Amino acid sequence: MSLTPAAPARLREVWLLFATFLIAVAGLIYELIAATVSSYLLGDSVRQFSLVIGVFLSSMGLGAWLSRYVDRAMPGFIWAQLALGVVGGFMAPVLFFTYAWLGEVALPLYGMLIAVGVLSGMEIPLIARVLKEIGAPEFRFENVLTVDYVGALVASLAFPLLIIPHLGLMSASLVFGCLNLAVAGLSLWLFRAQASMVQWGVWAVAIALSLGALIQSERLVSITQVQLFEDDVVLSEATPYQQITVTRFRDRVRLFLDFSIQFDTMDEYRYHEALVHPAMGLAPRRSEVLILGGGDGMAAREVLRYRDVARVTLVDLDPRVTTLFRDHPDLAPLNARALSDPRVQIVNQDAWAFVEESSASFDVILIDLPDPKTLALSKLYSREFYHLLVERLAANGLVATQSGSPLFAREAFWSVVSTLEATRNPLAPGEGLAVLPYHVHVPSFGEWGFALASFAPLASRAPDLPEGLRYLTPVTWAGAQGFAPDTGRVEVEVNTIQSHALLGYYLAGWDAWFR
Question: Fewest CB atoms within 10 Å of the CB: 23, 248, 359, 397?
């Protein structure tokens, strides 16, 4: 059946509105990829996400303004899609390769982000002009914007729930580049009277390169990882919460979360013995133990050395981490299969939500959370969080927390100590917690600090230690409590969810050493 004269125009109108939805999805995905990559590689997710959003939106405004200088709307729209397919599609590969080989990512990141923003900003004005040119009946600009905003909503929901877990950043970037090229290709066909042979040629080359890169995306990831990590990558997964990477060299295994090292089997025992055994060895009771974080099961392994432990509740946000370290044949032995022990209950939940909702009481609470390098993590080192935490602590209970490096981030370490000291003591109204700071040397991390808190000052005695420890002894415990002049106490602010002073201290300290 032949099309009526009005059908082609109606078909093109429907396509342009649907294309608006598709390009809105792709545009926001590029923005989220840029923000995620920058937070992975540059740190400080709040700063990076804020900068990426600001730069992207301002670039879109510039693109919208520049669109007035495009004489022919449809050819201009197609050129914008071709450029977006290439620049946006290859954004993640270029950023990871640049960082892996040159150690630099800021310049290409913001350069590509500005280009994507300008091109994305040109799209809606050009589509609106095309719709007017084809005589779309009852054309309303707000309809275009509505479709655009719906596409942004879909992208924002799909990115953490579907795209990152199933595609990863590298493949996601290429997939949505191909989506922009598909929009360009179908637009070329529907508006072929306005298309040029040059555009068809550029489209053919671009789609061939993008599809080829997408087919080889796993290989591209492997090549990048060889440069990013010293050892062989044996596992690499993106979850809705983080990037998980496990490397191996001979019998040496390392875990990286968001490209930051979490443990090295060469020396992790130093960290975990220092975190666990002072609290466990000094606690009058240790029947009920709570571990916040520690999804790798190493802290649980040390806790289970004590026969009088009846139950260990391990709260970790990412279920994939706890599943890997419970079930993976190469990873579970690293924690002596502690996560399969019937005494261990795994709860995959945000630490704040668990502490706020739980009514249980614990004899020992161990905090093995990542460093406070984001607002989301900083709040788990805040006075407000500690206020909730002490409600879960038994009267004679102890809390031990990793507190960062007293050398690399001196103010941050003492801010954690000061925040614990400023936490209300329910057994001594008007007073804070008694806190004992200490530190050990972990070669993978450097000088690393911890804090031990209780409702009453601890007795001056060595903890009762189990047999078989490789680092902690009464002698090393005594030495751990002394601080050199360059790591000693300084005046700092208490960390609260209003001030987040800890985040500033942490970033300033590490930047001074490593930027």
Answer: 359
Distance of alpha carbon 235 from alpha carbon 243, whole angstroms:
10
How far apart, in whole angstroms, are the C-alpha atoms of residue 391 and residue 399?
12
Nearest in space to 87 (alpha carbons), one of 125, 39, 62, 120: 120
Is the pLDDT at 489 greater than 90, yes or no?
Answer: yes
What does the DSSP 8-state code read for residue 495?
P
pLDDT band at 229 (very low <50, low <70, confident <90, very high): confident
CB 8 within 8 A of CB 192: no
Nearest in space to 393 (alpha carbons), one of 419, 371, 423, 370: 423
Query: Would you give the distance in Å from CA 442 to the centre of its chain?
Result: 24
Contact in structure between 369 and 292 (CB atoms under 8 Å): yes
Which residues does the annotation mark as catalytic? Answer: 368
C-alpha closest to that of 85 among 189, 190, 214: 214
Mean pLDDT of the chain: 89
CA angle 236, 446, 505 (to 5 degrees): 90
Identify each DSSP E strand in 352-501 by its residue range.
362-368, 393-404, 434-442, 446-454
Coil, strand or helix at 235: strand
To the question of pTM greater than 0.70 for the whole model, the response is: yes
